[in-house]
Design brief:
The protein has 475 residues and is an alpha+beta fold. The chain folds into 3 domains: 102 residues, Nucleic acid-binding proteins (OB fold (Dihydrolipoamide Acetyltransferase, E2P)), CATH 2.40.50.140; 292 residues, 2-Layer Sandwich (BirA Bifunctional Protein, domain 2), CATH 3.30.930.10; 34 residues, no CATH class. An 8-stranded mixed β-sheet has the order 6-9-10-15-14-13-12-11, sandwiched between helices. Helix 4 packs across helix 6, helix 4 crosses helix 7 and helix 4 crosses helix 14. The protein binds adenosine-5'-triphosphate and magnesium ion (3 copies). The site of adenosine-5'-triphosphate has 17 residues, from strand 10, strand 14, strand 15 and helix 14. The site of one magnesium ion has 2 residues, from strand 14.
Length: 475
Amino acid sequence: KNEISIADLYKIQPIGREITISGWVRTFRSNRFIALNDGSTAANFQCVVDFEKFEDSLLKRITTGSCVRVKGIVTKSLGKGQPIELQVQTIEILGDSDAEKYPLQPKKHSLEFLREIAHLRPRTTTFGAIFRIRHHLAFAIHEYFNKNGFFYIHSPIITASDAEGAGEMFNVSVLDKRNIPLTENGEVDYSKDFFGKEANLTVSGQLEAELLAMGLGKVYTFGPTFRAENSNTARHLAEFWMIEPEMAFYELKDNMDLAEDFLKYIIKYALTHAADDLAILDQRLAEEEKSKPADQRSMPLLEKLKFVTENAFQRITYTEAIDILLQSPYHKKKKFQFPVEWGIDLQSEHERYLVEKHFNSPVIITDYPAAIKAFYMRLNDDGKTVRAMDILVPGIGEIVGGSQREERYDVLLSKIRQFGISEESLWWYLDTRRFGTCPHSGFGLGFERLVQFVTGMSNIRDVIPFPRTPGNCEF
Ligand code: ATP
Ligand code: MG
Ligand code: MG
Ligand code: MG
C-alpha cells in the first residue's frame, strides 16, 4: 500500500520524501495547520496547507471529525511540539463531517459523556491510548505463555456446566422454536432450547481447561466469558474476557509464584511497548488527582506500575486478612458497609482497605473458608479452608481468583453433593479424578480488570470497546 501510518512516519522521519497519509482531522487552525490522527499512535501529525493553493470550497470541508487523505513532502518542523511535518500538495476529502453536529468537539469531554457515544470514542486521544494498550496486553499474555511452555487451548462458549455454581449464567435459546424437539406431551420445553438440552454461555473455561491440563500439562484459555451480573459496579461486566491458565503438578505456592511472575511480565511489557500511550494516561490521571486533597491522591500511574514490577506481592491468609480488618479503624468506627467476621466473603471495600490503606501494595490472600469458595478447590487438612488464592490490587480489589484444585475423587464427590450440584452433570469432570488424577492448579484473571489496572481507568466500562452492562447491548 502506497501510504504510511503516522506511527511509522515519526519512526522513519523520511525528510524530503513525498508521502501520503490518511486520517481524521482533530483541528484545522487558521486555514493552515491540520492536526491529523490515524489511530496508529497517540500523536497527531501536523500537515501544513498553503491556503492560496486550494479552493475555499475544499478548505471549508476540512473540519474537526472529517476524514482526509493528504499527499505532500516531509520537512523538518520549525514549530515546537513536533520534529517533522508535511507540506501538503493534494487533499482528498474521504468523509465530510458537519463541525457543528460532530459530538467530539476539540475540548475535554467527560468519560460519562464519551460512554454515551461509544461508537465515536475510539477517535479520542484517551480511548486511542486505552485500546492500543489493551492490544499490547493481550499480545504480551500470549507471548508469556508461549515462552513458558503453555499451550493455548479453546474452551467452549456454549456449555451446560455452571463452573462457579453462582447461578449467574445466561441461558442459550433459539428464536425459531421449531428447531426444538417436543416433549412427550407434544410441548416445547423452553429450558432445553439447545436441540433438546439445556445450554448456557460459559462463566469460566476452567473446568474444561483442567481436562486439557490433565493431558497436555500446561495450558491456558483466553476468551469471552459471560455473567448475569445485574449490578452496576465499576468492576463488573456481563461480558468480559478471562485468561485462565491451568497446570498439572502445580500446588498452591507454584500457582501464586506463576501468577505473580506473569503479572509482572505483562506490566513490564506494557511499560516498554506502550510507553507513549501510558504517558498520556499518566498525565491525564495526574490532572484528575490534582483536584483531590493531597492525602487522598493515589500514586502516579507510571510510578505505581514500576513499583508493582519491582516489589514482591504481600502474601497473607484469609484469617490474617480478617484480623487486620477487625483491628482497623474502619471496623472500629463502623465505616465498612458489610460487617467483618471470619466466614464472610470479602467485599470490594474490604479488599481495597487491605491493599490501599494497609499494605499499599498488591496482596495475595490464601486459604479462604471452603463455604464461600467454589466446589472444586482443594480442601485443607483443617477441613474448613481451601487452597484458594485471590490477588488484590489498588484501585480495583480482586483481579485474580485461583486455587489448587481438589484432585481426590472421594473428597470432590462429597463436596459436589454438599454444594447441591448434580454429580451426573459432572461425570466427565469426576472421571479425571478416577483415572490417573494428579495435583493441579490454575487461576482466572479478568482481562478488563488487568487493563483497568494498567491504564489507571477507574471504571471497567472504559477499557472495553463495547461494554455489556444491564440494559446496554445495542451495539
Ligand atoms: P468478584 O468478587 O469481583 O465478583 P469473582 O470472585 O466472582 O469476582 P471469579 O469467579 O473468581 O470472580 O473470576 C475470576 C476473575 O474474573 C476475577 O478475579 C475477576 O478478575 C474476573 N471477573 C469476575 N467477574 C467479572 C465481571 N463480572 N466482570 C469483569 N471481570 C470479572
Ligand atoms: Mg462475582
Ligand atoms: Mg470475589
Ligand atoms: Mg474470585
